[in-house]
TrEMBL record:
Subcellular location: Cell membrane
Xref: PANTHER family: O-ANTIGEN TRANSPORTER-RELATED, PST FAMILY PREDICTED COLANIC ACID TRANSPORTER
Protein name as catalogued: O-antigen/teichoic acid export membrane protein
Nucleotide-binding as UniProt keyword: no
Transmembrane segments: 21-39, 51-73, 85-112, 176-195, 310-332, 344-364, 371-391, 397-419
Pfam families the record matches: Polysacc_synt
Native organism: Kribbella ginsengisoli
Main location: membrane
Annotated keywords: Cell membrane, Membrane, Transmembrane, Transmembrane helix
Membrane topology category: Multi-pass membrane protein
InterPro entries in the record: Poly_Biosynth_Transport, Polysacc_synth
Length: 441
């Protein structure tokens, strides 16, 4: 039985990793097109517009993306008035995030897009709700354990941008305008498919036709909303810190060195993140599963995955590092030659990512996302301090060194925490995955 479970888990992780690899391929082709039409500066603007609106949106929904998978896992998914509460949080956060972006757009334009009109950057606020709609649909599929649907959405999220970006280019729009239109259209197209799958999984009653409190529409439950926000905010701290650890160097480098340097660094960063795909997939697949297991079984399952993930990432890193220079120059051209050295430094920072992905899934699954957030916060401090110290003198290479130090430190701490909490004595006496009544504790 263990062999069958392990084989099924392996296939699931491979499928999810493949979906993320397809997403990276789509992002790569889109970045190549942006680079060929606008150069490194356009790539830098594309990276910022892909990151900043989504960051604003996630901050304004009380951690809902991180809480969805937990609250949609059986049996919590059938709580009365769950969906009206989720929709109220999501809609309110999307509206608030859009207003925040509009108010902050002059400052955002001055810091990150000095050559673009503030009105155009304000218009990019339309991607705050579209990215949220897509993110929530994706995490809803995760909670409902539609792994195939989740994989489709993960791949389509980046693949859809290329045709949606070509459309405004062919109709006469260029630069940031074409990027904003492409991002918004791609988000909407994929979000519609994600929510279609969610609707099919939940049944027609979820369109509001059910009168037993299980439909999509109705009066939100304030106490349930507090529980969702409590879990979500604790988890969001970790998710936000993870995002900042991955992308804060983009913002700092863009503000200090400009879009052109950022463009080369963005290419290097996305290339190095190929090694993070298996770890992210393990978190995605493991988290809902571990949440359903008893503490001892969850601990034993997580511990068994540490060694193979460490070895697997190490073996994968060798060919990826050797191919860095030819891939960069072939795909992006000679203008992106400076991206080669930072990419190799960043690859070193990904060596522990597989095992740390298992550790994050274990912490979320046992109902303690705050521990994950604390560890990630340490990495964020390292990122900020080293970015400020190294970027002014060393540019993209300084950002790469800072991020690598933060990645390795954070991943090592997460793995150590997993080993300590999952030790047989702790696992026997540890609490099980947190039920709904304990979420606010």
């Amino acid at each position: 039985m263990r062999g069958r479970v392990t084989g099924e888990l392996f296939r699931t992780v491979v499928a999810n990793t493949s979906a993320r690899a397809l997403a990276i391929a789509g992002l790569t082709f889109a970045t190549i097109l942006v680079a060929r039409t606008g150069g490194p500066s356009a790539v830098g603007e594309y990276a910022l517009l892909r990151m900043l609106p989504g960051l604003v949106g996630v901050l304004c929904v009380l951690g809902l993306p991180g809480a969805l998978a937990y609250f949609l896992a059986a049996p919590r998914r059938d709580l009365p008035r769950l969906w009206p509460t989720l929709i109220a949080i999501g809609f309110g956060g999307a509206l608030f995030g859009t207003v925040v972006w509009l108010i902050a757009s002059p400052v955002i334009a001055h810091l990150f897009f000095p050559d673009e009109p503030a009105l155009l950057i304000a218009a990019a606020g339309v991607t705050v709700p579209t990215q949220l709609l897509l993110t929530l649909g994706k995490t809803a599929l995760q909670g409902l354990e539609d792994r195939r649907g989740g994989d489709v959405v993960i791949a389509a999220e980046e693949l859809a941008f290329l045709p949606c970006y070509l459309l405004p280019l062919l109709t006469g729009f260029h630069g940031v305008t074409a990027i904003v239109i492409g991002l918004g259209l791609a988000d909407l197209v994929v979000a519609v498919e994600a929510w279609r799958r969610v609707s099919r999984l939940l049944g027609w009653r979820r369109y509001g036709l059910s009168g037993d409190g299980l439909g999509w529409f109705g009066r939100p439950d304030r106490e349930l909303g507090k529980q969702i926000a409590s879990y979500g905010l604790r988890g969001q701290v970790g998710g936000l810190i993870t995002l900042l650890n991955l992308r804060l160097d983009f913002a700092i480098l863009g503000a200090m060195a400009g879009p052109a340097v950022l463009g080369s660094y963005a290419v290097a960063s996305k290339y190095a993140e190929l090694l993070r795909l298996p770890g992210t997939a393990l978190t995605w697949v493991f988290y809902p599963r571990l949440a359903k297991l008893g503490q001892s079984e969850a601990a034993a399952t997580a511990r068994r995955m540490i060694r193979p993930t460490l070895i697997g990432i190490l073996l994968a890193a060798i060919p990826v590092a050797l191919l860095t220079s030819p891939v960069m120059r072939l795909l992006y051209g000679a203008a992106f030659g400076p991206a080669v050295a930072p990419a190799r430094v960043l690859l070193a920072g990904m060596l522990l990512a597989g095992a740390s992905g298992v550790a994050s899934a274990y912490l979320y699954g046992r109902g303690t996302p705050g521990l994950n957030s604390i560890v990630l916060g340490i990495g964020l401090v390292i990122t900020v301090v080293l970015d400020v110290l190294l970027i002014p003198a060393h540019g993209a290479m300084g950002a790469a060194i800072a991020s690598t130090a933060a990645y390795l430190s954070t991943d090592a701490l997460l793995i150590g925490l997993l080993l300590r909490l999952s030790a047989p004595s702790n696992a026997r006496h540890g609490r099980p995955a947190v039920p709904i009544t304990e979420v606010t504790s």
